[in-house]
Write a structure and sequence with these properties.
By secondary structure, the chain is an all-alpha fold. 67% of the residues lie in helices and 1% in strands. The protein is built from 21 helices and two strands. The N terminus is likely disordered.
Length: 451
């Protein structure tokens, strides 16, 4: 007899932790995800201490990171993980055989094409009843990395320095990576499960032991009166992020379960609830949907930091920063007074990827093309397109209103406070209205929500 869609042991990966799944009443795919990330966290500490650049060669570090990453993928996703390896090897062939002027185009078309085919198959195989943590997540991250590397390789070999922006020049890759370097960058255990995407030069500098010193030199650390470059520890940053992870997990297990998005299109709720109360509930359920993202992205960030990766320099007070790979800024998200500020602090590394491979390279309509690429990358569920097409309109409208009206409210402190309060409320409600279809996925509930 077929398993019900919500069966706690439903997974495409290992069933080793099935007893724990049954005991906690949590789906096995989620148990496997968390178990792999926690094991990756421990492995990352060990990797930094015992396989640091001073104790092991770059080849050993590459090999360890790759083999553990492959194991995690197979453990979580079973035979579906073959999609990851097929895409990686196809694009390795493109990277070595394609002409430099076209390498970024071919890599982009193949990676996005394969990802889209997998998204389509998930709809027809799972019929919207998808696993919350299936192989498409890692495939999306690998697609980002493949296209990032292809563009940066094109910048480094196929373009002149004067044609590049300062950032493109800094990140340009001058030589094709070896197979081991390529596999390590795409499949390393720190980012195989939940990302985030990072730049190839930063990753190679981390493996070779140049990562921290490179970032310190970028801020002219030696000019601050120190005799030698320090070796900052990530332990404090990791502990702080693990605390955020724990709070997010608690909120997910309590708040998220009790405030389902589907309730906002319930007929009884729509008929009997006043409009302002419906708006309030929409805000609450949108807030309730966030902790799982806070949990997954912050834990992934902590894993990378524990391995010694993710150092970004120092702030204005001289404090070491470990936010190079951070995917969100929770405070800025929750206090955002503009749609732009909100999306700049949500899924930061994906926004950076979209900017580097699309917005900065689009010949026309960069904003529209970037939103469309974002929708394609996320999948082919209709709700995604409702969200991102709405996002285009809201972004353009918010930009026009801010440019034309904001200066009228800067003449006094009370006016500025009033402006900030109003724009915060409008921004939060605009975000709720925009992302609801993203959560509901299908056309029918989305149209019902809009009506």
């Amino acid at each position: 007899m077929a398993e019900p869609p919500g069966a706690p042991h439903r997974t495409t990966g290992s069933t080793l932790l099935h007893p724990l799944s049954g005991l906690l009443g949590i789906p096995l795919d989620q148990i496997n995800f968390v178990a792999c990330q926690l094991f990756a966290l421990l492995a990352a500490f060990w990797f930094r201490i015992y396989l640091g650049p001073s104790h092991a060669s770059s080849a050993v570090r590459h090999a360890f990171a790759t083999l553990f990453g492959i194991y995690f993928a197979v453990f979580c996703f079973g035979w579906y993980s073959i999609h990851l390896f097929v895409l990686v090897m196809m694009n390795y062939g493109i990277m070595n055989m394609a002409s430099i002027p076209n390498i970024h185009r071919y890599s982009f078309v193949v990676a996005m094409g394969y990802l889209t085919l997998c998204h389509i198959s998930r709809i027809y195989i799972f019929h919207y009843g998808i696993l919350t943590t299936d192989f498409s997540g890692p495939l999306m991250i690998i697609t980002q990395k493949i296209t990032t590397l292809a563009c940066q390789l094109h910048d480094g070999i196929g373009r002149q320095a004067e044609e590049l922006t300062a950032e493109q020049n800094r990140l340009a890759v001058k030589t094709r990576p070896s197979l081991l370097e390529y596999l390590s960058y795409l499949l390393n255990f720190m980012s195989i499960i939940a990302g985030p995407c990072s730049n190839y030069k930063d990753y190679i500098a981390f493996i070779e032991g140049r990562h921290v010193h490179m970032k310190l030199l970028e801020v002219n650390w030696k000019q601050k009166g120190y005799d030698r470059l320090p070796d900052p520890s990530p332990t404090g940053a990791v502990m702080y992020k693990l605390c955020i992870t724990l709070v997010s997990l608690i909120l997910f297990l309590t708040l998220t379960k009790n405030f389902p998005m589907a309730y906002i299109i319930d007929n009884e709720f729509l008929d009997k609830t006043p409009f302002l109360s419906r708006l309030g509930y929409l805000y609450v359920v949108t807030q309730a949907a966030k902790p799982k993202y806070y949990f997954a992205w912050t834990l992934a960030d902590a894993v990378n930091n524990a391995a010694g990766y993710g150092f970004s320099g120092v702030d204005e007070t001289g404090t070491f920063r470990w936010d190079l790979l951070s995917n969100l800024n929770i405070w800025n998200i929750e206090t955002a007074t503009s749609f732009k500020m909100y999306i700049e602090n949500w899924n930061i590394q994906t926004a950076a990827w979209l900017k580097r491979v699309c917005y900065d390279r689009a010949p026309w309509y960069p904003t529209a093309l970037t939103f469309i690429l974002s929708a394609l990358w996320h999948g082919i569920y209709p709700g995604y397109y409702f969200t991102f097409l709405t996002g285009i309109l809201i972004t353009l409208a918010a930009r026009a209103i801010r440019n034309n009206c904001r200066h009228y409210f800067l003449s006094s402190v009370p006016l500025k406070i009033a402006y900030d309060v109003v724009t915060w409320v409008v921004t939060q409600l605009a975000v709720c209205y925009t992302v609801a279809p993203f959560v509901m996925l299908a056309v029918e509930p989305t149209i019902k929500f809009y009506n």
